Amino acid sequence: MSPILVRPVREQLEHDRIIRLLQAKFRRRYEAAINPGNEQNAAVGAGTSPLYPDLLLMSPERGHKLQVIIEVETGESVNHLEALAQWAHFGRTRAAFHLYVPATMVDVARRLAEDNQIYVGEIWSYHILGDQPRFTLVHRNRETPPAAKTVKAVKTATVMTVTAKTATAKTATAKTATAKTPKATSTKTVKTAKTVKTGKKAKPAKRKR
Length: 209
What we know:
Strands 1-2-3-4-5-6 form a 6-stranded mixed β-sheet, sandwiched between helices. The chain has 5 helices and 6 strands; from the N terminus they run αβββαβαββαα. The protein has a domain at about 10-150: Restriction endonuclease-like alpha-beta roll fold (Roll). The radius of gyration is 37 Å and the shape is elongated. Helices cover about 45% and strands about 20% of the residues. By secondary structure, it is an alpha/beta fold.
């Protein structure tokens, strides 16, 4: 659902039909929640300004982790305002962001994503053939998502901090052990010298005949 666009009735009906077709397509692999029209069934984000993408694909396993966010656009909604209002936010989440646009708007969608530095995992085109839409993958982003980069950087910094603390602790332990070690060598030397001095016996004097 677009927060800034009111589509013509016919275009909105086509938009919602594509959402439901995608829901049926992915239902075998995911738990799929949709927000067609003005419905607000499942949100992304919390607080005072949650967003309601067209389709959310979640893991069927326990926890139902969000895996993919899908936004379906029509010819009217592939524009600069829509890109900044929704695509930019979806591209910063940890879930993959997939964009579906009419075949005639693929180049415009690519340019909007590049100009505004919006990360889109996949761009799909669709066109109506007879009475059925056909979907084609036209772009797949090979770069690491921004959210994944952030998580990796945090983990690396944490590992480096723990390693540094461990090394510092080992150094302090070694210094403490060295300070507590008694100087046994000098004690042994003194004891040996005393033993040598006290161990000598005086020789008896010779008698004169």
